[in-house]
Amino acid sequence: MEIRANPETFRLAETFAISRGSRDVAEVLTVRIEAEGKAGRGECVPYARYGESMASVADQVMGLPDELTREGLQESLPAGAARNAVDCALWDLAAKQAGERAWRLAELDSPGPVVTAYTLSLDTPERMEASARMHAGRPLLKVKLGGEDDMTRLEAVRRGAPDTRIIVDANEGWSAELYSEIAPHLMRLGVRLVEQPLPAGNDELLAEIERPLPVCADESVHDRATLPALKGKYDAVNIKLDKAGGLTEALALKDAAREQGHDIMVGCMVGTSLAMAPAVLLAQGASVVDLDGPLLLAEDRDHALEFDDGCVHPPRPELWG
Predict the structure, then answer these.
(1) What percentage of the chain reaches a pLDDT higher than 90?
(2) Would the pTM of this model clear 0.70, i.e. be above it?
């Protein structure tokens, strides 16, 4: 078994901004695992918010033993980007070796297209309104907030897309007081869900205040070990492969979160179709899906995922799985 880790850069269609900063490119790490004449691929996005860098994640990948299984990987690496890319590459490799689709190997039902959100980057109200108007025909918009004048921005988005379902993501940018103050206005504007309004280390306050509309954990949830601390605070959890450390753990987290009473959202970092492909399997039956990474790119992988009518389709075997 030979493992390779290759950093790659893909241009974004336009600058993407959240409350913590902005970027013009997607920087990803592609892992390729070869064995017995077959090769599997996986992709991850190292995230500084979680103490990751391209170099540190590549070092984790290249420090793995030559002989590796998905089960052994769970013990060899912690949840995070490195384990995600390797885990997804192992799923892809297993599918190619078996001549079978990955969803069958995972004992899942045949996947179909799922409606995905399209993300509006944090910007001036005027530009966000223009972007909302451009994408008003999509069934679901995700609005990045977490700065000053958030309500002005959201009012502008609603003017631009008066009939579209909206969810918002504060990226840890609010306080409990601010959330309580603006929640009625969010409901007035038809917001269906709020993602991570408070900082992950300060979210115990969510158990003490009213939550008039569903609140979804993002930065506060990674793998199953982080799940018990969410009781009473969140109504839903956003499962991302890069946080969970791969499809193996993400599928287990999905089941455990439902057992704990949470709705499921499946999200992504800003990556290519290769990163989204295994997440489409995870997204089957989720309440909210946000796998729009490739739609934000100016360039993508060969055999890219198909997007139409607001939906993302399952990957072709030439791409993954």
Answers:
(1) 86
(2) yes
